[in-house]
Specification:
This protein is an alpha+beta fold and 639 residues long.
Length: 639
Amino acid sequence: MKRLFNILLYLLLAIFASGLAVSGVVYFLLRASVPDYDEDFSVAGIEGPVDILRDAAAIPHISADSAADAYFALGFVHAQDRLGQLLRARRAAQALLPLDQTIEVEPSTAQALDAYAAGVNAWLGLVSEGGRGRGSPDLLIADERMIAAWRPVDSLRLAQAFLNDLQPERRQSDLSGLSDRPLLPELFVTSPKVSLDAWALPGDRTASGAPILAADIRGPLSLPSEWYLADIQLPTGAAIGATMPGVPFIVVGRSERVAWAFRSLSLTALKEPVSPTAAKAGNFLMMLDRLARSADVNDAMDASMNLAPAGLEILAIGREIFARWPDREVETPLSFRDARLAALDVRQPIFSVEGAIAAQRDTVSTAARALLPIMAKELWFVGSAGALKENRADELRGDILGQLAQWNGDMDRFSPEPLVFWAWARALQKRILQDEFPSATTVWARPNADILFAVLSDRGGSAIWCDIRPSTRIETCQDQVRAALDDAIGWLVDRYGPDPSDWVWGEAHALNMGWAPIRSSGIISDLLSLEAPSSGDPYTLIATLFSSDNDRPFAASAGTNFQAVMSFSEEAGSYFIAPAGQSGHPLSRFYENLFLMWMQGKYLTMSTDLSLARGGAVGTSRLSPVSVDTPTIQNDRSR
């Protein structure tokens, strides 16, 4: 027995020691791929030295003597911080553009694409020399033994994929059961993967007298963030703002003379989706290149008006004026978000930069304000007439309706009313549409305020959708509203208990940012994800889109993922924020350092003044040219 005990003990110790050794090796490999922001490099492909200053948030400020060297350095830092993201995006976009297709772009844009690709490959060459843990933790679990060199066509592919993501997704038009029902166009269109929004204020509407430009981007909420902040000190002047890893230009940002942003058209304004082509992607990149080099607002408009993709509006401001292209506002149906912004605009005639930021972070839902009075009008009426509370269900229903009657539509994460409202709306939509499309759960499982408003307001006779087709009697919308409220209360009691004070919006509406590796890695992705209770809904100015998960219907894995407020009223008049850090490496302290700021509504101040960036800087790196090609890239592939 003693001998058996010793054998088992030694076996356990051996397993424990082996586990420690494996853990140590894995940790060493992971730590080896965390970039050192104070490390200098000798690289081929640049004409002169390039300095990369990382400020307190690890945002790179790139200083070079030529535009080509600056874009080389941008490719280098993109690969240094987001190599896994670059490779994942390239893999996803490979089918869009044939590899050998040639796209004509302007010489300056072609030079930027070539230099950017050389910068990415320079980092790949350094990784293949060894000692850097394959450059990204994704590559330790992915099956990519050989990494193809980055090519300019890869950046074109990513630009084309971005334009494609701006298009609304169309459902199949052969959904059954529509012959005797008024058409609901909202049934056939779902939200695009990415949407852009922007609004500007002229100088006579601002406290400083200088125009203000506010920009939002909505898309996936992932780790690393979809956007990467950078300052590129070009010979024509500095440009700062949000870059898209894989593309060598500022997408939304400002130079020393012009600030620019984009607004994509609403879903209902696009009669037919516009299919992005490689040529349109090239035009888009040329437009971004021109915007960064524009002398003033008029020059920016002249340089980009013939290159803007269909479905995008360009907004630009200078020190005194602002302009848009097209030069007249595109006629689009007013969305719930537009209605909220218009209400804030009327209520506040003069804005400061802080006021613009507060408007961007607004969490009052116009959708709730529009739908709730229609849904509850008869129920509020009955309740106020002194209806007898015969049992606990009636009492609970009355308490809930009383709470909703005093609610202002604020989707605050600590409040119960948002949860009650959206559970009610979800149950109502299910009752209205499930009988028509019993197997198409995507049509009725996720609440759509536009569909509900059209039906409840009887737009074009749409109230007939409330009738349950298989039943013999004709159900009215008020019948469905009453039944849906009981459905919602039952769901809430089962999920969160019988006390409405325990029903908190943030518990159901959690913002989930999952790690997005090159390939799905299950439990590892779950461990590296971030989750926090969140305010807002799909129709608030800071948007959070509901998931299609039946167990967690109000969880948000997509929504607003970048915001900026820009003005030329002061030297540091540019404020940017993204919901995660600059680094894509989970062991870096800059992996999630911006998440708390994002949740608290705090913005980063970015300036083209390098003396300000040096305060609290976390590293300074220099790229020096070498005269020979690096031997680690062979046959366009890196080990």
